[in-house]
């Protein structure tokens, strides 16, 4: 390391940035607005903005634009916004001063005026939820607007628009010449355009552990770049004098680097591609200057350049995974190679050499896996268990796919018929990719939902891994000086024993290290009993976790958050490492209580998630209800048993008892909100009450069964028609949780309900202010954690 000052500088810069981030230092580009304006932008405000369109990306239902040098008026004051994310519906049209017919796409370079809801990009409100704030911060974007009306002041055009149109035309050409699924995959690989990728393909690739294939990454830049450099080098060095060879190599290197730079810009400049382009340039520079290339120093230089241009990159998952993967190849892979005796390599028959290639590829992928595994668990909460085999099978064919795909697409822009000839084998290979990953998806235990590891586990894991690498380098250095075999501290065997037995005997230290790595990575402490209310907007979803590790969900839906199950509930379950839900309780059949549950059932049926559910409980009256029958049918399709319950039913899991208080087996309210299932959850001295959307009529029925409780889930999102004074008096003074969104169209929670809670001296917490809320019994008291305030979950 003392011979690599660039590495030390890079590590020092990362540590400084991490400390500054933890301290809240204003060095990360986030605009410092006055408090009045910031509060207005956090809530969102309708205003007009102006700016220049510099980027366009199509989606299924919307189009995203990036505006540069924007201005807006907020609270009567004009503010400047360096970069702004603008979203428009695909159905929206607009016009300019020169055209009467509406247009559907804004040209890059256009100067526009848009009206819509402008707001600061908010952090996630639940554990596991996609972090839009960090994602956009890595692009220096902190505000977004959903535009309802757009006027073009100056029409754009120029080189950037031509490049964007070419990219979109290429995508359309692929759909004409290939099967739709394979066209979407190749478009993602070559052009960075995922708009054509079916969700089915994404799921298959995720289960196969080859999602990196679907992104413009270092793998793509290196493959295409080296192919280009090889062609140009042969072109310039063909039949040339010795004196011209050095100059020809430099010209080939410069042209290759410039072309790949243009390609990086063409594909949208994703961070992994920019990193690869910088390293590619350093490698070509070393090649042209006939100097040795140090990938570790090149990696450090690329990191420094990216972090100085935008420090927020350090906290973006794409940056971390990209650099970790390259660090694995540059640092861990040589250490793994040194574990194999040097007497083994490059000796023997063709079959032996084939085995050597397989071992090298296996060790390379193992190195990348060791470097990235904790980060994959930290950001995605699940590990594809067959990824090692799938990558060994599919990645070697990537060179053919990239070469033929690039040539075929380029040729297809001139002659579709000739381009099709080259794209046919690519189509067949990508069909094989889909078949293999699809088969893996349906294999038992193909995905391990590991949950997010503790940060201390990551620290111990990487310290142990780096310590082992240092040990291997130390051993290799000593052996090099003494002329001994690099696979151990002893001299090489005389060859009388088999190489496998020698490998096992000589690497006992490695075995111990890898066992410790697995332990640090896989260890999970036993959970405490807790109740968590998720922020699902206008809806309800609560999770009960027992000391024994069992998990129960009470309702799960939303009427204002689209695909709440896919984007909030399922990610939370995975983040918590919950691969098995012991049961789901449905209070009643309204969409804001069951919509997310139905998404989960469909995901289980189609195997887009590895989460499993033990049983679903519904009120007895829902057996004849249309929504209840629909839920029961969906459960049958997913292989989940259904039980219909009434007051008196008790579910016991370890020390936890869940008792149904309402509705009754006969008589009383038997439908709708008033017929909501009411649950009393007991654990030691803790007692919690979950009331669904119970209203006054239902409250009166259940009043005589209510005891003093520690925690109350306030009924019907804090509606004025629920949670009466008489009902609160029976519950004692419990900590109360309310599930309601900002700007609720029903104005939940109602002022009358909050006044009743305050009058009773009850502490209450609402998801619109706190995000997800967790209650943990601590003796006779409850510890309340609020996700938006940074409390640990």
UniProtKB/TrEMBL annotation:
SUPFAM superfamilies registered for this protein in UniProt: Metallo-hydrolase/oxidoreductase
Single GO cellular component term: plasma membrane
Keyword Membrane belongs to the record: yes
InterPro entries: ComA-like_MBL, ComEC_N, Competence_DNA_uptake, DUF4131, Metallo-B-lactamas, RibonucZ/Hydroxyglut_hydro
Claim: Transmembrane is one of the keywords in the record: yes
UniProt-listed CDD domains: ComA-like_MBL-fold
Pfam families: Competence (PF03772), DUF4131 (PF13567), Lactamase_B (PF00753)
Gene3D superfamilies: Ribonuclease Z/Hydroxyacylglutathione hydrolase-like (3.60.15.10)
Location (main, coarse): membrane
Domain annotation Metallo-beta-lactamase: ranges: 538-743
Membrane topology: Multi-pass membrane protein
Alphabetical UniProt keywords: Cell membrane, Membrane, Transmembrane, Transmembrane helix
Compartment annotation: Cell membrane
Listed transmembrane segments: 205-229, 250-266, 323-346, 358-381, 393-414, 421-443, 455-471, 507-523
NCBIfam families for this protein: ComEC_N-term
Protein known as: ComEC/Rec2-related protein
